Amino acid sequence: LPSLLGIAFNSFLRNDNRPKLAMVSTICGTISNIILNYIFIFELGLGIKSAAIATGFGQIVTLLIALPHFILKKGKLSFGNQNLEMNIIKDVFRIGLPSFFAEAAFSVIIFVHNLVLVNIIGEIGISTYAIINYITTNIYLVLLGVTLGAQPLISYNYGAQDSEKMLVFYKLSNRTSIIIGIIFALLCFVFGKEIIAVFTSDKELINISYIAVNINNLAYLFIGKNLTTTMYYQAIEIPKYSNMICAMRSILILPIILVIMAKTFGENGIWISMAISEFIIILISKKVFNINKCTEDAIINLVS
Known about the structure:
Mean pLDDT: 86
Distance between the termini: 40 Å
Structural class: mainly alpha
Oligomer: single chain
Number of strands: 0
Shape: globular
């Protein structure tokens, strides 16, 4: 419960012009989690199960930092009596579904990769992919953070009917994501073996994982744009396009590309498949739904 409330309140904070407070609450919760993990596991010897308790306390810290903003009415959003209206609930589900699918897509991607890896490579492939995920989950979350940071700015200007600024923030988010992806790829290329060595001492696995992670990282040059585009259509209340992109990323394009590349090029085909899939989705999205026209149509619908 504290975890869900913390995520919700941080989202409200970003939309209530307090992104720094949302950042502080998240960082404090994370630091608390790390410190408590060390104390519970190493100092008190409570075992690995205590890590769950530490995580719970970390989420409570995040929640406690965010709560005063709403209790003390420091912004436009605060607690109060509100009747549940079916139309509002429907709109929340309709517009919010893409966020759910964006999160779920990452889990589906991992699941599909594991299925293919078991059949093509075997145990060492699963071990390699586990290491890749340990490393790349961080960059995925950073890119997702960039996307979530741009969302309130785009939503605000959508309400203000300023299409020019909406597109400016969209493009800025895309450029930022590409720069982050390039920096991350370079870090893994230069320090990849040292980073992988944190997770294993097996030299063969380190060498295989180094090649795999650097090929896989090409995908993160494109993932940021797809995440931002998903969020953009959600912010301007055209969730059907957001859902289409999420579906392509998880259950439509990726599985097909993954199987084809795996059978054609073996293990390296598996590692490159996500980059190819994400790039194809960018091309399809650009061709099928023009973002400039969709922005104009959204503004017209808002006015009418």
